[in-house]
Amino acid sequence: MALILNEEQNMLKESAQGFLSEHAPVAQLRQLRDERSETGYDKGTWQQMVELGWTGILVPEAHGGLEFGHVGMGQIMEENGRTLTASPLLSTAVLAASAINAAASSAQKKALLPAIVDGSLLFAVALDEGPKYRPTLVKTTVAASGEAYVLNGEKQFVGDGHIADKIIVSARTSGDASDEQGISLFIIDSSAAGVEVERVHLADSRNSAMVRLNNVELTADALLGDKGGAASVITYLADVANVHLSAELLGMSQEVFERTVQYMKERSQYGALIGSYQGLQHRAAHMFSEIELAKSVVIKALQALDENSTKLSLLASVCKAKVSEVVTLVTNEGVQLHGGIGMTDELDIGFFMKRARVAEQQFGDRRYHVQRFASLQNY
Amino acid sequence: MSDLEQFREQTRAWLEANCPASQREPVMEFDDKCWGGTKWRFSNEDQRTWLDVMAERGWTAPDWPAEYGGGGLSKEESKILREEMYRIDARPPLFSMGLSMIGPALLQYGSEELKRQHIPNIVKGKIWWCQGYSEPSYGSDLAGLQTRCVDKGDYFEVNGQKVWTSYAERADWMFCLVRTDPDAVKHAGISLVLFDMTTPGVRTSPIKLISGNSPFCETFLDNVRVEKDQLVGTINQGWELASYLLTHERAMIGNMGQTTANEKTLHQHAIDVSGLENGQLGDSALRTDIAQWEIDILAFELTQERIDDETKAGTGTGATSSMLKYAGTELNKQRYELLTDIHGQAGLGWEGDIFDNGLLASQWLRTKGNSIEGGTSEIQLNIISKRILGLGQKG
User: Fold this and answer.
1) Which range of residues forms the domain containing residue A164?
2) What is A47-94 written as a DSSP string?
3) What stretches in chain A show pLDDT beneath 70?
4) ipTM of the prediction
5) In chain A, what residues touch B302 (CB-CB under 8 Å)?
6) Strands B173-179 and B155-166
């Protein structure tokens, strides 16, 4: 498949760019942070996203969605990266929608997918039990209680945890911590007895939470997918997450790069624009080259999602590893090339650097994916 | 079945029937690649046959017009041919600057007579072309070149010195940048001329490189007579042509890092040398470096593909040949750094049985030139800064 967008995907990208730059620019995130917003996102903007149909892009038409595909959703994520818009889009419309599509029973799909499309339910996905992504390290326990389950454990750094109505958690139904087999997924109500959600604040001013499960009782229909066999669903979910996070990071890279080059054309020192100095030009040109490489891995991996490619995992790791490297370079250079002003809170560049680092960590950082790439190639 | 599917089926069958087995082996040495020309010694009969049968159909230059001996294939058909050759690991039947550089320039800018004289011979691999660009004092600053070309009425007379002429002692003809107007602004006084390397006054002298090989020469031009009909384009149009040619050269050099189907991957090299421990390379730091490189080369190959797709769709941003040249050559250098690391001291064997007479060491050293020839990496970064990013005005 050609590595370009079709006309409809291009139109979606343009419309997302127009909407986000007008209604949810970086200034919105700054305001949410400064006002210590309870929700951490703007409800009006979210409602408009729902009306634009973004929550239905990955949902099948049979369940009220648009079934428009990952390449299209990736364009929205990329534009979100340019504006740093805080919203439940990734947790609910990308991750939860993908998990439910991939693993849910038809009854679960019927109950949950339309509620994702119309924005009435917000989700969080809770896999981590520590500060680094280690999907098989699951100590949260599940005890059988007749037909029902009782969960105990702590899930950490759960994106959008404190605003979610429902939380998809991984827990161990058998085996030892770190075993690949024996992990199951459950959908729990955040209001259920024994669920304690504590919001935590990370550098990116986006929503994160610790979720403690104290004897949380679940009925049998809370199980998502096969009991003990969630590893493959989690792998798929992480691939989805990493490709879309990469799209977001690509948008951030481009935005920071463009702002930095613009500054090089405005700032004078020693009687000349700093952009006229070769020492700085070459650093900018190198970043341009790296961003071109990043664009290619992102579109290829998005297409792999839509095609259900057998190379999806490999391409997702290529994508996250490369884009993480590029966004680290570009945000660091963005601050350095802005000089002192780059260190100020007043300039937006710092917001991009902070969001980038958190997104890089989520679902595995560059090193994790470089190692995973080698393992997938059997060396 | 669509026409393209039918073409693929026929091409597949024809290649199966006509590509000799030895021409499906990986290219290991210089002579494994056929460069053609009057002085070429075929490494074996298969190499000659493979060139002849492919040239017969014009498939050495698949998308060139059939009226000049090219294959006359559409872009889609050329792509299918490439894919089918890749599928069976077929070597390119011919590798030359005629195909990659002067041929495209002649098709774009040459007179009808020049096309009829030269293009069929390029397709058939009859003539080995070399390039006369750099001069001792004008490398990166190519437009300052001083080799003079004077109009003598019936003919041109060329005097000067070229350097980094690849394989000049084996080449049959040179395409050469010369100064035709010494008073014009430097870019505006250059022309591109063609001449036979056996013309009196042409003398070459090989340059020994750090690799121990001498793929390049100095070429001395003393009162060399050039026929007037061997001017490409118009007088003083040379810089435009040179830029066009450099774009092609950059694409060619930038491509070098690309792995082909029959080439061993870096991690396979490492596995062959050290084996696996518990399913992993024992040297975990090397494993990481190899994985990082393999991720980068995949990103690079996808970028070539994407830019190609954008160009076809008419949505390309242009000026990307500099980016590809820069990224591709830096990756190729890294590839050989990693390869020599993988093989340890054996990889640095220079003579005798250790590593095939120093094959790897000489390849490794040769790649150092990739980011110098065809415009240095620094020149590519200058071009990106100025033409794409719009940086550079003193303001």
Assistant:
1) 124-228
2) HHHHHTTGGGTTS-GGGT-----HHHHHHHHHHHHHHT---TIIIIII
3) none
4) 0.96
5) 3, 293, 296-297, 300
6) unpaired
